[in-house]
Amino acid sequence: MSNLDRQAALSVCGGRGFVVAEPVRELLAPRRVQLGESTEVRRLLPNLGRRMVGAWCFVDHYGPDDIADEPGMQVPPHPHMGLQTVSWLHEGEVLHRDSVGSLQTIRPRELGLMTSGRAISHSEESPKAHARLLHGAQLWVALPDAHRNVEPHFQHHAELPHVTAPGLTATVILGELDGAASPGSTYTPIVGADLALASGTETSVPLEPDFEYAVLAMSGEAHVDGVPVLPGSMLYLGCGRTELPLRAESDAGLMLLGGEPFEEELVMWWNFIGRTNEEIAQARSDWMGGSRFGEVKGYDGAPLPAPDLPPVPLKPRGRVR
Fold it and tell me: Which domain of life is it from (predicted)?
């Protein structure tokens, strides 16, 4: 999914200087962003107060939207570099096309994982014949310097491992949780899991004390470590935890995101992740000039133009403002 902001701001993310090295309960409110003509998303990362959770650097939550009489998601071809995109659905379908020739319909609780490496472009759209509801999350994972120029590729995993407990089913999206490991490729110590809780459930999930974590509320009413979280909000939890208490007031869906705090400082602008302003400017020039990012074939529409770069110099701000 693209960042469609027409006035995208340059920002520096990463580095361990602002990692919270102890458990916290920091509730992050979303910013509403229009995605294309018919989809509004709630953007949780980057946030006014926090920019990364481990290598997770971008989180959008959308829906559930009634698109029975709407085109649904329509995101034209656009570029990425230096990151992985994670497509995750609770309802509906998304058709993915990219410049390495992938064509894949992603369905609920199937992993669509695109590794941009040095450069890729893709489009996302609801199929012409689609389900009534569309509900999901789009997330980015920053690639570390040693792997940010890997060959671009796309992975689709319809079957993912599960961790179960009374009233809880956890689907492991990326990384490892309680001994269950996702088949998706990762380049830093990381975890992403979908937590489905039955009404009335009180349970906990094991955590790595060296990871920092956050929980995205997808649906229902739940308490995370005693804090009520509403759909479309995210609770940042810091580090130093060995388990996370959960309580469901109704059937609820959560996403657990975590990872080892990211060592490197990053420049993230529009749909690019780099290390310098000059690198970002070159990527924009390459996209607008039709080189490097390839061509998405089969999408009915023009590629998305990049916004103008800001005239102000880049000011490092670390992981938080």
Answer: Bacteria
